[in-house]
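Exercise 7. Predict the joint structure of the components listed below.
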Amino acid sequence: MECYFLAPLRVKLAQPFSTAYSSSAYLQRRGSCVRWRSGSGGAAHCQKMFVPGFGEGSPEAKAARSLQDFFTFVAVKIVLAQLESYNPEAHAELTEFVDRNSLNDGDKFCRALMRESPRHKGLALRILEVRSAYTKRDFEWDNLEKLARKMVDESNTRLMREYVLETSHLDNED
Amino acid sequence: MECYFLAPLRVKLAQPFSTAYSSSAYLQRRGSCVRWRSGSGGAAHCQKMFVPGFGEGSPEAKAARSLQDFFTFVAVKIVLAQLESYNPEAHAELTEFVDRNSLNDGDKFCRALMRESPRHKGLALRILEVRSAYTKRDFEWDNLEKLARKMVDESNTRLMREYVLETSHLDNED
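Solution:
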């Protein structure tokens, strides 16, 4: 069971399922559920589905961690585009560094860039600044939510339609 | 330049930077910017940073696509946890299928699961249902935004502090 979205999870998922989904872990997580709603009878109860296997974290924290790497990637692209017109030399230096270093881990990339040379350090600081500004100001969070909901609905419909078409085709042949 | 967050981007980034960041692409993207704000002088202008290289899509669409795969991954974990207590046989079947098939591409995984056997088809439909409900109801979007902003700020501070500590240590030695 692997998912490239969250590389560190691969290690966690190597544990046996019996451990990952033990009833004690289930109860523990249920106990830490923070969203409570009033039922029709007035009793409060948690309506969230139990998501096991995230340890001390949460799905939201794991997603935020991956988004952070994505924002570093976006910041590098923004800075490259900005440099291209007014500082071709710095653009070439950053391009060359990007070709040599993976952006899978954004922090690791910035850490290496800062230590490459004083000029690269300036570029790294610019990338940190841009990813912070992009996260806070430019990234359209509402749009992300809307698009994700729409994509999931469309994918569900498409997958079921494909399956029905495929099986009805087989039925016709029989 | 690679980023595991968005696997399809690897192909796109293989093109030369001169093409990816050409001024015509720049102007094209600027023209499609949808967020306009009134300036102090009353003139409207786009204050968003230009993000090149996403073609017809947007960073939000790419992030939503990756989140969709993540939600499939979460849905599989939820269904496994639900099955464990009341249907150990189905739990074992799904576990075995998950071990054999990657969850990197959520739709591909569900497509294969639907075609494995009639029993697996039932499991696949359950996973589709759960990922839709999770996306709409359980996933805390506000929390995601808050955590991502906080993580970026904390990472920026940590990276700069590390660098300063490291270089001040070198200065002391000199």
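Discussion. Residues 21 and 52 of chain A are 6 Å apart (CA to CA).
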